[in-house]
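Customer escalation, tier 2.

The customer says the design service returned an amino acid string that "doesn't look like it belongs to this structure." They asked us to rerun it and document both sides in this ticket. The original structure tokens are below, unchanged.
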């Protein structure tokens, strides 16, 4: 079947609509002809389904993909992904979001697409703003957003990228949002001291209540509780602790936070997310062993029945760029320990939670 290159499309006649679009879901009918994107045309050309002409010259596969790659950025990567999806039995339409993918057995015009697939090289970072824009585009039409990353050896890794809270999997947690209520402390403030890097609470009763009932800190000995900086601020803001320095000087939460920011430059960003997670009923603990800011539990449990954390969470800025080799490593590590990998960014008081899940197509 003969087709012609016109602008950024390969055009087939009315016969192509019947044999390629209606039978195979290729291209889009327009004004009595069929418009094929370059990746679709390359796939059909490789299988001998069409011939492609440019200015009267018949182009074989190699000349055509050389031409297409000069017209379309990352053409070869898109072709690798398109071919892979087709060979897996999917109906695929090229679109502004790279590809629309239909369920196996489905075709364009017969049923809606299930997923939007966006193709990226492992070498090209993705700004968070761009990722959110693509996610919004998919979410607005109720499509799954899939990131297809092509690596150095042309292998493809697929990620389902979504908002963790919008996905309906981010609720639940501790029944009582305030530790006083959960631990039965009746808002009695205990004295706690900021040392060089952490806070020590030397009140045996409250230490035991905080640790065993609502999973704050780690027991230093039978009488003392070691608290992280976010835990200490959270408890102080809720009247559980009265903070002071090693010299006995009382510390307001503002002064404590300034000191904490000198100890940890990321303290404020991390605390904003920590507080939000606590208010959602989760129990955030340090994720250092996993290379993240937090490991997060769905609910507090007695200390002798601590469950596995549900997900790992890393705090990022609104201007963050995802470096895909780093992101890949974080997701794989999370999966290897049976956890979800979530990133959190504060947009002027609204925190976006974004989950990356490696999937098989």
């Amino acid at each position: 079947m003969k087709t012609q290159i016109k602008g950024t499309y390969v055009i087939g006649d009315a016969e192509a609509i019947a044999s390629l679009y209606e039978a195979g879901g290729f291209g889009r009918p327009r004004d009595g002809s069929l418009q094929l994107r370059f990746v679709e045309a390359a796939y059909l050309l490789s299988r001998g389904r069409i011939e492609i002409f440019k200015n009267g010259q018949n182009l074989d596969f190699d000349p055509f993909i050389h031409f297409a790659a000069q017209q379309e950025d990352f053409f070869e990567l898109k072709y690798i992904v398109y071919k892979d999806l087709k060979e897996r039995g999917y109906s695929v339409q090229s679109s502004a979001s790279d590809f629309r993918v239909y369920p196996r057995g489905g075709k364009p015009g017969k049923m809606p697409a299930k997923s939007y697939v966006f193709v990226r090289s492992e070498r090209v970072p993705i700004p968070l703003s761009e990722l959110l824009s693509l996610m919004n585009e998919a979410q607005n039409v109720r499509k799954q957003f899939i990131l297809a990353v092509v690596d150095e050896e042309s292998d493809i890794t697929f990620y389902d990228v979504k908002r963790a809270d919008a996905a309906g999997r981010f609720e639940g947690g501790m029944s009582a949002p305030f530790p006083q209520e959960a631990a039965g402390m009746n808002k009695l403030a205990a004295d706690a001291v900021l040392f060089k890097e952490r806070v020590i609470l030397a009140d045996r009763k409250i230490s035991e209540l905080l640790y065993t009932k609502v999973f704050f800190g780690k027991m230093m000995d039978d009488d003392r509780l070691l608290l992280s900086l976010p835990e200490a601020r959270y408890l102080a803001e809720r009247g559980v602790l009265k903070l002071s320095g090693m010299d006995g000087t009382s510390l307001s939460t503002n002064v404590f936070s300034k000191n904490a920011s000198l100890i940890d430059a990321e303290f404020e960003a991390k605390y904003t997310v920590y507080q939000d997670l606590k208010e959602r009923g989760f129990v955030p603990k340090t994720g250092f062993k996993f290379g993240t800011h937090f490991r997060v539990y769905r609910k507090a449990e007695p200390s002798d029945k601590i469950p596995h954390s549900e997900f790992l969470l890393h705090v990022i800025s609104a201007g963050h760029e995802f470096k895909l080799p780093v992101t890949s490593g974080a997701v794989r590590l999370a999966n290897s320990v049976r956890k979800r990998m979530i990133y959190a960014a504060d947009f002027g008081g609204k925190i976006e939670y974004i989950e990356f899940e490696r999937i098989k197509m």
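Tier 2 assessment: The sequence is consistent with the input. The longest strand covers residues 350-359. The two ends are 31 Å apart (CA to CA). Sent an explanation to the customer and offered a walkthrough call.
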